[in-house]
Structures are given as structure tokens and as C-alpha cells.
Design goal:
The complex is a heterotrimer of chains A (about 350), B (about 160) and C (about 375).
Chain A: H1 3-18, H2 21-58, H3 74-83, H4 95-114, H5 130-151, H6 155-186, H7 191-197, H8 203-206, H9 208-225, H10 250-276, H11 293-314, H12 320-347
Chain B: H1 3-11, H2 17-20, E1 23-25, E2 32-36, H3 41-50, E3 58-66, E4 71-78, E5 85-92, E6 99-101, H4 110-121, E7 124-126
Parallel strand pairs in B: 2-5, 6-7
Antiparallel strand pairs in B: 1-2, 3-4, 4-5
Chain C: E1 15-19, E2 31-37, E3 40-47, H1 55-59, H2 64-71, H3 79-94, H4 100-129, H5 134-153, E4 162-163, E5 166-167, H6 175-198, H7 201-207, H8 215-220, H9 225-229, H10 237-240, H11 261-283, E6 304-311, E7 316-323, E8 331-335, H12 337-343, H13 345-349, H14 354-364, H15 368-372
Antiparallel strand pairs in C: 1-2, 2-3, 4-5, 6-7, 7-8
Helix pairs in contact in C: 2-3, 3-4, 4-5, 4-11, 4-14, 5-6, 6-11, 11-14
Classes of the chains: A mainly alpha (about 350), B alpha/beta (about 160), C alpha+beta (about 375).
């Protein structure tokens, strides 16, 4: 039952029959953007609650359970509180940059969300340089952080922003290289093609040893990219200040906060797409119901998100110089060697195909 | 070493115990108490630490005391190798400008303890690296632990 | 910001940062004035006195039973041991011999207090370096000890159970059973602590080689307790000047020679094991007898000076009483372990980074009311 196929096709045809072309295209794009904004908001809300419940489970307590069944409306209550807060700004802050910085992180998160293949038809923007686009977008996010720290006119915020900038830029290398390692098997950068290749078995199985290494390196670097523990020196409370978002309050702080969770979701989604077959079911058991693909995708992504939350609540924090040593002296050489290994395996046709 | 042996050893260091007014007493205390003049304090302390038979390398308590007429400091010393303990007392009758030598160069723990004594008793120390009020605020008036300290607002006297 | 630091020739690349009195990492109201150059620390100066309550002056007008109640509030995590210090000083001065039952119960309570204090230290240590879950695990086990205390003396933190002459009440009938349950439960939890934090490679990289303290410096700065023992300085008062029932038990003194933060951490973990062993040796054979010896209602110490040392969870606490024969002491001085331990913070933190300062300070285990008295 191709439910999604028929829905999008029907709406598309209806719009184009009603209005002239440009107006119809514009309406269609606005509609899609609104849907994605909704996805963004709901995902953000859900992930914040999930983090609190997972943390509570690790710490032998219950977590939010008063506002709504199982605390489901807790984040909405938090959002309402944040919206009603006063937007204080510092006197000497650079007004334009100070207001612009949160939008950088939000917009990059949204752009990345647009290319993810949730299901066969549920993908907003399927360009032929999919992976390249995703990596490029995440690089732009760094600008938001640096702008936030700089324009706050606050010593601690600046230190925090600089640390975060260095960290993100370093770990982007590892993210890119580990993804590149797996692309060697697929031979294409387009996301929907990558999923098609995985009908012969998920890429983590096809690439066996080097793909497993690539996955482990990707998870470590991905956690570092999003400034989450154990790499959260930037927002560590026991150190000085609160990092680059010290001077933000109310809705602007909510932007940074939400963007962190959405980034975590995006990192997990990319891993799902590349390593675990996006919306494909294992061994093709629900092949005949392609609309179930959304649930498979979300399920796999949530498992990886849970893994990242597990990291946060278990491990202590790394110091900034230990962080950078890890990347430049250990992860990068390992990545390069892994790439060579994968190239050899692909050349000798040693991948596992089903 | 027993108290008697310690007493003999220490009195052998000074040429003439009577003129240097070194007093030993064991009554009313479980340790051997030495009372020394302020001028001889530093030298006695150096010798107590460096002499290998006494080897008092652990200063475990430095207290200021207001004896009524005099202000004084009481040092409790222990040796980590021989495990004997001794008490050194020094007093001065100048309540307006009490001044002793600091023993920071001998035991580094004295830095904070002497600041505390200065804070509460007003006793100053020579050669102290950073003598300042450590608990009370910089502009506090008076020295609270002295017996003649009066504070109608903060003190409750029975 | 008024400071009279010794940093009068201030270089232009250095700047001041205040780790102010309200800060998640300073374990109480401690203000640290840091002079840093980039990420490296040049000078640390503590500013104390935010919780100074003039306990020593109050002791000069209170009776000896009232003074025991004041000592609880100094180092509130080892309140039992603080009480015992004053009680022992008074009992030795009056030359009262307390029954064996009292001595054994006092030692059991001391060791349980030590376990509770080290538990809290472990939880907060994890939190300071970023492992936020350790806090909850530590408090879960500490609750059991608090419940045991509450059943016998009615309070969870400031026990007030020791009085000059013995104990205030007899132990609750459930005491022995509950302590045994706790010991059995806790022995399965301590290995869990090791798995979670001690053997974690990130934690070890944060702690090994950080905050080095040599043995000579430890003795010179007057370090005591686990801080001294982490540098190889054997300073356990329970071994050098035993009191209460400590001469009846056998235990090892936790010593390490490396002198870094990880050594101090390991010393405390080992101390928890040793405390469990002491409680196990004593809990089955609590002698029968009275739980106190009658003293006068108004206690007057004879003329003289008295000193008593005990080993709290932080180190060596000393009580120095100068008495002129009246019902109040003429001068009472508390030699607090935290005050001497804090003085070496500058020595071990200079040249390291801010993250190292936080980790080293956590291993010093400071309780600021103990320092400020």
C-alpha cells in the first residue's frame, strides 16, 4: 500500500491544477518547509524529554512524570517558560551579530534535516551530492557558535566559543573521512542511491571490518561535533561560566539548546543512512509495506541517539588538550589507514553481499 | 626520646640557660613545654627542626593565646620519625605592637596559621610572605579573640 | 575587588578570574582568586571567612556539654568524630575511664561516618570531572547509613551522640542487624564504583600525574589524612595515637607513594574497604555494660592544657584546651585538617590548567565550614 506515494503525488497534482506554475511551486515549497519545521519542533521536544528520562533511568530515579502521562508535556511547559522570559542583552554587545548567531545554527540544522531519506518518498531534497552537502552544512554551524561567543562581549563566552570552534573544526575531519570510507563501497554520493545499494545488505555488513572501524570513529567524532559529553568542556558547569551561550536567555537560548539536540539527531540519522540502511528493514521482512520505512528509520536513529545519551551520563569529561590530542594523533591516522584498508577490500571484491 | 632527654639536649644548645630565659615545664600539660624569648624564637625553631635527634618536622598546631597581660603564640611540634612531641611558647607584653618572627621558612604550614593569628589577635610576624586578614574582612575593627574585645552588636555575653 | 595578593607585578598577558563563593566545584563557600595566563594557572589565592561563625570565641563562654554540640557544625560530614574529639579531651582531663561498650560503639560509629563521608566525596568527585551519574549512586548508599544513624540517635547529619562520659542513649535493638545488612550490601557496591570511575581511561587521564605533592612538602605544609597518605607520608592518627577501641582492631593504613591526584583517590577508596573491615571486626562483639559514666552536671576541668588528636575523614583534627579550672575553657583551639590542606592548593595547582585545578581540589576533599570554623 503506497500510502505516502499517493499522498504526495495527489497533493502535487491538485496544487498544479489549481494555480499557475510558479505559485503552485511556491505553495508546495512553503508547505514542505512548514512540515519540516513541525518535524524539527516535535523532534526537539521529544528528544529533550527522552534525554531526561534516560538520565533518570541511569541514575536510579524516575524523571519528569507530572506534566502529562509519562511527563510527555514537560518540554512544552519548558518551552512556554522560555518564551515568556525577558530577552536580556548586554549593553556592549554587537547587536546585529548577537541576534544573528542563533539563526545560523537553526538554519543549518533545518537544511541538513531536509536531505535525510526518511522513507522512499519522504525526502525533501535529493541532490546528487547528498553526503557532501551534509558535511558542508555542518561546517557552517560553527560560525553561529563563534559569533555568539564574540558578540557577547564576555570573557568567559569568548573562551568557550573559541574552544568549541577548535573542537568542531578538528572533529569535522574525522566525520568526513569516516563517511568517505564507506562511500568507497557505494560509489555514489546521492543519498537515495546509497540506500538502494544497501538492498544487498547494510553497508556496515558489506564493509565488515573497515566499516565497523569507520562506524566507531564516526560515533566518537559525531559526539564531539555536537559538543556533547564526554567532549562537553564548552558547557561544563564545574569549569568557568556556561560557555558561548552565557549571555543568551529566553527564546534565543532555546534555539541553541534545541539545535544541539537536533544536531545529535542529524548525526544519528546520517549514521543510520550510511551504515544501517536508512528505511530498509533487516533482511527485507517488511518489503511490501514501504510506508513502514519511516518507523524503521526512526527506530534505528533512536537507538543511536540513546547510545550518545549513554555516553553522556557515564563518562567523565576530557580536557581540551586531551580532546585535541585524541583527534590529531589518534583518530586521524586511524581514519587514513582505515580508508586504505577499505580501498583494498573494495578493489579485491571482498565485500559481503547478500 | 623522653621529655628529660629532650630537655637535656635542648638546654645543651644554649650557652647559658639562665640569661636566655629558656624555661622547661611539664606540669599542667602532657608534653614538655619550652618558654622562649621572642628574640631567640627563630633560632630555636631552626635547631629543633634540623637536629637529627629531635627532627621536629611537623608543626601540627599554631595557636594564638591572650594570657591576660601578655599575648602569645603556642607551637605544637611533632617528629614524624621519632614520634615525640613538644610545645614551644613565646609571649610578649606589648599588646599594642606584638611582633614575632615568622616560621614560614621552616614549616610552610605556618603561612595560613600565622595569618589567622594576625586576624584574631593582631600579632604581626616578621618575614611573612603575605600577612593579611584571612577570615574577617579587610576593614574589620579590632581583634576578636582578645580578652578585651567588645562588640555590643555581635557578641552575646552570659 | 579588594585583594592584597602578592601579585603586585602583574604581567599584561595574565588576567584575574574569580571562582566565586557560589560555584559548583568549590564544595562550599570558598572564593578562589586565580591569576591565569591563557589556560595555565599562575597563582591561586583562597579567600576565606564566608562561613566563619567564631566557634572558638563561643567556646570560651559555653560549658563543655554545649561545646560538643558546636563541633558538629564544623566538619559536618564527620560530625561524630568531631564530637568524640572534645569528649575524649574532657574525659582524659578528668581522668574518667569509659566502659568498653562505649569505646566499641564509638569506633563503629566513627567508621560508619567515615564511609558515609568518603561516599559523598566519591559522588562529588565524579561530578566535578563530568561523570554526572556517580552522585546518585553514592547517595543511594549513603542513605542506608543515614537511616541507621537516625534510628539510634535521631539525626542524620549532626549526630550529637557522644557526650563527655559516654553516649547519650543506648543503641537501638536493630542496630547490629542493620549494620550487618549495610556491610553486605556495600561490599557488592564498592567494586561497582571501581568499574564506573576508577578503571575508566578518561578518568585516569584526568587524574594521573596531576597535582603532584612530594612527601617533604606534605609534611611541611601540614597535610594530613588521605592528602598526606597519597604522598607516602604515614600520618594516620588511628595508628600513631590510638583512641577508643582502635587498639583492639587490626587494619592496614592506606598508603600510596605517587603523590598525584589518582593516588589520593585510591587512598580514599582503600580507606572505605578498611573501614568496612574494622566494623566487621567489632560489630559482633559489642561488650555489655553501661553506656555512660556519670559526670557532674557542671563539668570543670582541672587547671592545665590538654590536647587530643583524632582522625576525621579529612585528616587530623586537634582540640587544644587551656583551662584555668572554671566551667568554661580559657582558650579552645581547633586544629582543622582542611585549613592545612587548603594551604597547599597554590603549590599543587600552579603550572597546571583550570581543569586540573578542579580535579585536584576535589581530591583534597575540603569542607569549608571546617576551615572557617
Amino acid at each position: 500500500m503506497n500510502l505516502s506515494l499517493s499522498i504526495t503525488k495527489n497533493i502535487h497534482d491538485w496544487l498544479f491544477s489549481m494555480m499557475p506554475e510558479t505559485a503552485a511551486s511556491l505553495t508546495e515549497m512553503t508547505l514542505i518547509a512548514t512540515v519540516y519545521l513541525g518535524v524539527f519542533a516535535v523532534t526537539g521536544l521529544f528528544l529533550v524529554l527522552l534525554e531526561r528520562k534516560v538520565a533518570a533511568w541511569f541514575q536510579l530515579r524516575l524523571g519528569p512524570n507530572r506534566v502529562g502521562p509519562w511527563g510527555l508535556f514537560q518540554t512544552i511547559a519548558d518551552a512556554l517558560k522560555l518564551v515568556s522570559k525577558e530577552l536580556t542583552g548586554t549593553v556592549n554587545a554587537d547587536k546585529f551579530l548577537y541576534n544573528l548567531a542563533p539563526y545560523f545554527v537553526i538554519i543549518t540544522a533545518l537544511m541538513a534535516l531536509a536531505v535525510l531519506p526518511f522513507s522512499m518518498e519522504f525526502q525533501a531534497f535529493d541532490i546528487n551530492i547528498g553526503i557532501f552537502f551534509l558535511i558542508a552544512i555542518s561546517s557552517i554551524g560553527v560560525i553561529g557558535i563563534l559569533l555568539a561567543g564574540w558578540s557577547s562581549n564576555n570573557k568567559f563566552a569568548l573562551i568557550g566559543a573559541m574552544r568549541s570552534g577548535v573542537q568542531t573544526i578538528s572533529y569535522e575531519l574525522s566525520v568526513g573521512l569516516s563517511l568517505l570510507t564507506v562511500i568507497l563501497i557505494t560509489g555514489t554520493l546521492q543519498l537515495s542511491e546509497i540506500v538502494e545499494v544497501q538492498r544487498n545488505g547494510w553497508l556496515i555488513v558489506q564493509g565488515h571490518i573497515p566499516a565497523i572501524f569507520a562506524f566507531m570513529i564516526y560515533m566518537i567524532s559525531g559526539t564531539a561535533e555536537t559538543n556533547r559529553a564526554p567532549f562537553d568542556l564548552v558547557e561544563a558547569e564545574s569549569e568557568l561560566g556556561a560557555g558561548f551561550h552565557t549571555e543568551y536567555s529566553g527564546m534565543k537560548f532555546a534555539y541553541f539548546f534545541l539545535a544541539e539536540f537536533i544536531n545529535m539527531f542529524i548525526i544519528a540519522s546520517i549514521a543510520t543512512t550510511i551504515f544501517f540502511g536508512a528505511w530498509l528493514s533487516p533482511f527485507g521482512i517488511t518489503e511490501s509495506l514501504p510506508w513502514l520505512g519511516v518507523f524503521w528509520f526512526l527506530g534505528k536513529t533512536l537507538v543511536l541517539v540513546f547510545l550518545m545519551m549513554w555516553f553522556r551520563w557515564t563518562f567523565p569529561r576530557l580536557r581540551i588538550d586531551q580532546l585535541l590530542t585524541l583527534e590529531w594523533k589518534y583518530l586521524l591516522p586511524l581514519n587514513l589507514m582505515n580508508l586504505v584498508l577499505m580501498a583494498i577490500i573494495v578493489w579485491l571484491n571482498l565485500t559481503i553481499q547478500f | 626520646m623522653t621529655n628529660e632527654a629532650l630537655q637535656n639536649l635542648i638546654s645543651s644548645w644554649v650557652p647559658d640557660p639562665v640569661t636566655s630565659e629558656l624555661e622547661f615545664t611539664e606540669e599542667e600539660s602532657q608534653f614538655l613545654n619550652i618558654s622562649v624569648q621572642p628574640a631567640d624564637l627563630h633560632q630555636l625553631m631552626v635547631q629543633l627542626k634540623s637536629n637529627s635527634e629531635t627532627n621536629f618536622d611537623y608543626l601540627f598546631c599554631l595557636s594564638g593565646v591572650d594570657w591576660g597581660n601578655e599575648l602569645g603564640v603556642v607551637y605544637h611540634l611533632e617528629s614524624t620519625t621519632h614520634r615525640h612531641m613538644i610545645v614551644v611558647k613565646v609571649k610578649t607584653e606589648q599588646r599594642d605592637t606584638p611582633l614575632f618572627d615568622s616560621v614560614y621558612d621552616i614549616w610552610k604550614t605556618a603561612e595560613f596559621h600565622e595569618c589567622e593569628v594576625f586576624d584574631f589577635f593582631g600579632i604581626q610576624f616578621n618575614n611573612h610572605p603575605n600577612l593579611r586578614r584571612i577570615f574577617l574582612t579587610e576593614d574589620w575593627d579590632g581583634f576578636p579573640l582578645r580578652k578585651d574585645y567588645e562588640d555590643d552588636i555581635n557578641m552575646i555575653v552570659k | 575587588m579588594e585583594t592584597s595578593t602578592k601579585n603586585n607585578n602583574f604581567k599584561s598577558e595574565e588576567y584575574f578570574i574569580n571562582m566565586g563563593p557560589q560555584h559548583p566545584a568549590t564544595h562550599g563557600v570558598l572564593r578562589l582568586l586565580l591569576t591565569i595566563d591563557g589556560e595555565t594557572i599562575k597563582n591561586v589565592e583562597p579567600d576565606l571567612g564566608y562561613i566563619h561563625r567564631s566557634i572558638e570565641k563561643m567556646c570560651e563562654r559555653d560549658s563543655y556539654q554545649q561545646i560538643v554540640h558546636l563541633t558538629d557544625r564544623m566538619d559536618y560530614l564527620s560530625s561524630n568524630i568531631n564530637n568524640e574529639a572534645v569528649c575524649l579531651a574532657v574525659e582524659n582531663a578528668l581522668q574518667i575511664e569509659v566502659p568498653d561498650r562505649v569505646k566499641v560503639i564509638r569506633t563503629i560509629f566513627d567508621e560508619l561516618t567515615r564511609i558515609a563521608s568518603h561516599n559523598l566525596w566519591w559522588g562529588v568527585m565524579g561530578m566535578d570531572v563530568g561523570a554526572l551519574t556517580t552522585y546518585f549512586y553514592a547517595f543511594r548508599d549513603r542513605e542506608m547509613i543515614n537511616d541507621i544513624f537516625e534510628e539510634t540517635c535521631g539525626a542524620r547529619l549532626t549526630m550529637n551522640y557522644n557526650i563527655p562520659g559516654g553516649l547519650m542513649f543506648d543503641i537501638h535493638p536493630n542496630f547490629v542487624k542493620r549494620v550487618k545488612e549495610f556491610i553486605a550490601h556495600f561490599k557488592t557496591k564498592l567494586p561497582e564504583y571501581d568499574t564506573l570511575l576508577t578503571n575508566n581511561v578518561i578518568f585516569q587521564k584526568r587524574m594521573r600525574g596531576i597535582g603532584m605533592l612530594s612527601k617533604e612538602d606534605a609534611i611541611s605544609y601540614g597535610a594530613s589524612g588521605p592528602v598526606g597518605r597519597g604522598s607516602g607520608y604515614s600520618c594516620d592518627v588511628r595508628k600513631t595515637h590510638p583512641y577508643s577501641a582502635l587498639d583492639k582492631v587490626t587494619f592496614n593504613e592506606a598508603l600510596r607513594t605517587e603523590g598525584d591526584s589518582f593516588a589520593r583517590y585510591e587512598v580514599r577508596i582503600q580507606e572505605m574497604w578498611e573501614s568496612i573491615s574494622i566494623v566487621e571486626q567489632l560489630i559482633d562483639n559489642i561488650p555489655e555494660g553501661d553506656y555512660k559514666v556519670a559526670t557532674n552536671a557542671v563539668i570543670k576541668l582541672p587547671k592545665g592544657e590538654f590536647y587530643q588528636k583524632v582522625e576525621t575523614a579529612r585528616g587530623e583534627l586537634g582540640v587544644y584546651i587551656i583551662s584555668t579550672g572554671t566551667k568554661n575553657p580559657y582558650r579552645l583551639k581547633f586544629r582543622s585538617p582542611g585549613f592545612s590542606n587548603l594551604s597547599l592548593l597554590n603549590h599543587i595547582a600552579v603550572g597546571g590548567k583550570i581543569g586540573d585545578l578542579v580535579a585536584s581540589m576535589a581530591t583534597l576533599d575540603l569542607v569549608i565550614p571546617d576551615i572557617d570554623r
